[in-house]
């Protein structure tokens, strides 16, 4: 059981916790949908980044979908997950040199998408962890 009761708004346990504030739940869901239905980063890249973040952010609900792959044939996925790990471990160390490395594989639009996805996903996972949301 989560730290607070579930609302009657939403389909998933996560949505039902946010559903205590219907407009927040609605807009949060719209932004999540935007991340998964638009953009140029592949669904596989986003999923591997999401899994990497889940274990660093301590969200058991998000961890239930599995651990990130240990290695990737796709260099873009490897770089994105390494960037996500650095974000988790020492975000203050991320400097221009790191962005220069990202720019070797990603366009500026993709870098913006990756960074916003990491921040949004971290916010979602920290909410889940804070609420002790279980799978």
UniProtKB/TrEMBL annotation:
<dbReference type="InterPro" id="IPR029032">
    <property type="entry name" value="AhpD-like"/>
</dbReference>
<protein>
    <submittedName>
        <fullName>Carboxymuconolactone decarboxylase family protein</fullName>
    </submittedName>
</protein>
């Amino acid at each position: 059981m989560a730290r607070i009761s579930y609302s009657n708004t939403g389909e998933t346990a996560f949505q039902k916790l946010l559903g205590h504030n219907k407009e927040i739940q609605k807009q949060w869901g719209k932004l999540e949908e935007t991340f998964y239905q638009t953009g140029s980063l592949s669904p596989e890249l986003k999923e591997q980044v999401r899994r990497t973040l889940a274990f660093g952010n301590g969200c058991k609900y998000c961890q239930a979908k599995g651990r990130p792959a240990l290695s990737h044939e796709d260099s873009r996925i490897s770089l994105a997950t390494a960037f996500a790990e650095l974000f988790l471990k020492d975000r203050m160390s991320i400097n221009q040199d790191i962005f220069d490395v990202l720019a070797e594989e990603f366009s500026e639009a993709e870098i913006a998408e990756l960074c916003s996805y990491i921040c949004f996903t971290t916010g979602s996972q920290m909410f889940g962890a804070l609420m002790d949301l279980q799978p």
